[in-house]
Automatic annotation (TrEMBL), chain A:
It comes from Pseudodesulfovibrio indicus. Pfam families: Response_reg. This is Response regulator receiver domain-containing protein. PROSITE patterns: RESPONSE_REGULATORY (PS50110). InterPro entries: Bact_response_regulator, CheY-like_superfamily, Sig_transdc_resp-reg_receiver. One of its GO terms (biological process) is phosphorelay signal transduction system. Keywords: Phosphoprotein, Two-component regulatory system. It comes from the Bacteria. Residues 4-118 form the Response regulatory domain. The modification 4-aspartylphosphate is found at residue 53. Gene3D superfamilies: 3.40.50.2300.
UniProtKB/TrEMBL annotation, chain B:
It catalyses: ATP + protein L-histidine = ADP + protein N-phospho-L-histidine. It is an enzyme of class 2 (transferase). GO terms for molecular function: phosphorelay sensor kinase activity. Its EC number is 2.7.13.3. It comes from the Bacteria. This is histidine kinase.
Length: 142, 215
């Protein structure tokens, strides 16, 4: 099954080239070059993973991460940044980011993390579905 | 401010600019990395029998060349900034000094979604500390950016004024964006600089007096 990925970065050429490389690798990619576009994309689609730049002109990546975690708690977020500091990494992981990568990133390592993100999301969704089914079975008299 | 505090403030400024420049360079490398990777992907696909599309190769190569030009301009500005500490004072071309400060501040403006541009500039030079001048202009731009909003434009120019120079900071449709020198008062005092607002034009003026002219 193709991994559905939302790529968020204000560097348009970076977005174009990386999304094309990910599509070559069989992924379904949506891009957003601003935080506001990302919010629209989040509302419109269902993704396995989000690759998010830490520094966006209209919103700090950490703020964006908080927003995503609040509205889509199952979504796996990989932060990709040119300014990888230990503090930012720790803060991102504490907020629930799945991983933190420094630019320029290795495509194989990124692809691997996206596949893991998809697997992780499937486990979460399966667990939730299982819980829902159990709750229904317990609440019904049959 | 003590000499030690002043040295520390100068170092902090140097660090802030260096961090911003290194981040920009990382972005340049990231684009080059993906464009070069795309060319590699195309060649691997061609080896497996898929036809190569010359236009796609050309576009990736153009992207790499464009990013190298961008990176070269960033490094050139960083080099000029690093050399601003070579001499304590020297004759400084203020138009060039302003262009450097604007280039080094552009990323800060971009992050606030404000367009930063050079306005009218008249040739003017004076004896000054190149490093302190860059710091003063950078601080002025930062203070002006604090008063602007996403979508605004900040225009900065320079002209000779009473043996010194006057830097104008304006934003079309808005009042002068620099109200006082409060965010950089110690540096302004040390450089004989002061801030005023031209009510007629709605422009902020950063007046830099010729060294020794206030004594």
């Amino acid at each position: 099954m193709a991994e559905k990925v939302l790529l968020i970065d204000d560097e348009v050429e970076f977005l174009e080239a990386l999304s094309e490389r990910m599509e070559i690798r069989g992924m379904e990619v949506t891009t957003a070059e601003s935080a506001s576009n990302a919010v629209d994309a989040l509302g419109a689609g269902d993704y396995d993973a989000i690759v998010l730049d830490l520094q966006m002109p209209d919103m700090n990546g950490i703020e964006m991460l908080k927003l995503i975690r609040k509205s889509h708690p199952d979504l796996q977020v990989i932060l990709l940044t040119g300014q990888a500091t230990l503090e930012a990494g720790i803060q991102a992981m504490k907020l629930g980011a799945m991983d933190f990568m420094e630019k320029p990133a290795d495509i194989d390592a990124l692809t691997d993390k996206i596949k893991k993100a998809q697997a992780k999301k499937m486990v979460i969704v399966e667990k939730k579905t299982e819980k829902k089914v159990n709750d229904i079975l317990k609440s019904k008299g049959w | 401010m003590s000499r030690q505090d002043e040295t520390r403030a100068g170092l902090r400024f140097f660090g802030r600019v260096s961090a911003s420049v290194s981040h920009e360079i990382k972005n340049v490398f990231a684009v080059i990395n993906e464009a070069a990777g795309l060319i590699e992907d195309f060649t691997l696909m061609a080896e497996r029998g898929m036809p190569l599309q010359p236009e796609r190769l050309k576009s990736a190569a153009n992207s790499i060349q464009g990013q190298i030009r961008r990176g070269d301009a960033i490094i050139k500005n960083m080099n000029a900034f690093a050399h601003s500490t070579d001499e304590d004072v020297r004759e400084v071309n203020l138009v060039e000094g302003l262009a450097l400060a604007v280039a080094l501040s552009t990323r800060f403006a971009d992050m606030r979604q404000v367009k930063l541009t050079m306005g009218e500039c008249e040739p003017v030079s004076m004896v000054a500390s190149p490093f302190d001048l860059t710091r003063l202009l950078h601080s002025s731009i930062a203070a002006a950016l604090d008063r602007l909003e996403a979508g605004d434009t900040l225009v900065i120019g320079v002209r000779p004024e009473g043996g010194g120079a006057s830097f104008s900071l304006s934003s079309p449709g808005k009042d002068g964006p620099l109200r006082d020198d409060e965010p950089f008062a110690d540096l302004a005092r040390a450089m004989n600089a002061s801030v005023s607002v031209n009510e007629k034009t709605g422009t902020s003026e950063l007046l830099l007096e010729r060294a020794g002219s206030s004594e």
